[in-house]
Amino acid sequence: MKKLTLTAIAVASAFAASANAAEVYNADNVALNVGGRVEARTTLTDTGDNKQDDASRARLNVDAKTNVTDSVFAHGFFEKEFTKANSNDTRYLYVGVGNENNELQYGKTDGSLGLLTDYTDVLNFFGAEASSKSATADRADNQFLYIVLTVV
After folding, report:
1. Which end of the chain has fewer surrounding CB within 10 Å, N or C?
2. 40 and 112 in one domain?
3. What are phi and psi of 149, to 5 degrees?
């Protein structure tokens, strides 16, 4: 049975919200943001039975940051995804420490290959070929991630 997955553009444009964040607290060198998004999605089949499956999802995230010293900060991020199938998927859960130029994170973060293929492996046909080859192509648990925040 061949399945055709479509994003219902009319529904998505009418009901889907873009990612949003609200600053809940910002005082005493501590900032707390809560954000997320809701996507109305559907999966349609081309077998003639007019079957439609709800593939909608919602994401909720919490982002916290505090200044340890004048030049060093600590950072924590958590994001969970909710679907009709009652999935309890933690997408991101990490802590980090950094300064204005660098940040080191530990936890469930983006894999190194995924950071590259998210921008380069985006063909309509035969896309996502590289990103399915390794566990580092998606989010991975218990990993360190080093990020350069500014280019000198």
Report:
1. C
2. no
3. -85, -30
Q: Considering the entire predicted model, what is its pTM?
A: 0.71
pLDDT in tens, 66-112: 999 999 999 999 999 998 887 778 999 999 999 999 999 999 988 77
Residues 43 and 118 in one domain: no
Pair 106, 150 in one domain: yes
Give the CA dihedral 105, 108, 113, 116, nearest 10 degrees: -60
- pLDDT: which is higher, 8 or 106: 106
- Does 146 share its domain with 120? yes
Rounded to 5 degrees, what angle do the CA atoms 79, 31, 78 make?
10
Q: How many domains does the chain have?
A: 2
Judgement on whether residues 82 and 110 belong to the same structural domain of the protein: no
Check if the beta carbon of residue 7 is closer than 8 Å to that of residue 41. Answer: yes
